[in-house]
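Forwarding these from the shared drive since the link keeps breaking.
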Amino acid sequence: MPEVRHVREELWDEHTKEFRLRSLPTVPDVELPILRDDLSVSPGGSTVIGSVTVPPGTVLRVTYLKYLTSDPRGALFSIAQNGSAVDYPYLPSAGETIVKEGVDNPVYVLEGTVEVYLNAVFGAVSPGTVYGLVLHGYYSRQEELGGVT
C-alpha cells in the first residue's frame, strides 16, 4: 500500500517572531465597516468613529483598508493603537482609496485597543457629509511583539 504524507508549509512571521502555518484564511476574523454622515466636529478637533479590541495574546493583521469621503476638501483619518497614532490615512478630495495586501505582508499589525479617528483639519465637519472606513483583518498569536511594523 502506498504511503500518504501531508505537508503543511510553515513560514517565519517577523511580526509575531514565531513560525506559523502558511495556510490562508478565507473569512476575515475582523470586519469593521464605518460609514457616518451624522458627525459634527469643530475645526482642529477630532472624534472617534470606530474601534475594535484585539484579544490579549494576539495581533490583528489588517489586510484590507478602504477609506472614503464625500467632502470636496478631503479627509484626514488617524488609526491609533493603545492611544498612540499608527498612521494617518489621507484623501486630498472626495472619493475613496483602497489598500489591499496579503496575510504575509499586512497593511498594519495592531494589538490592544484600536481606534479610528476623523480629524477636522480642513475646517469644521458638519452632518450630511459622508465619511467612512472599512478594515478587514486576521488574528495571529503573539509571542512577543516589539513594535508595529
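-- next protein --
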Amino acid sequence: MDRKSRRDETRRRIIERLDAAIARLAPHPELMVLGSRLAAIREIAAMELARTPDSEQMQGLAEGAQKPYRGRCETSRKAREDNPDGDAGPQADETP
C-alpha cells in the first residue's frame, strides 16, 4: 500500500468515526453546537479526501476549519438576542 492509499484510508476511518460521533449526539439537543462542529470537521476531512491539496488549498481548509471557533456559538447568539441589554437577570446573592 503506497503512502497516498494509507492516507486516504486513514481519512476514511476518521470520517466514519466522526459520522458515528455525530449520530450519537443527534438525540441530545443540548449538544447541538458540538455536533455541528463535528459535522464541519467531517466535511473538511471529506474535502481533503476528494482532492489532492496544494498549499493554497491547504491554507483555505485551515481557515475554514477555524471559522466555527472564531464566532460565537448559537446558544450565545440566542442569549444576546433574547436579552440585548446584557442583563444576566437576578444575581446569585439576591433573594427572589
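The chain has four helices and no strands. Residues 3-25 form the longest helix (23 residues).

- D.
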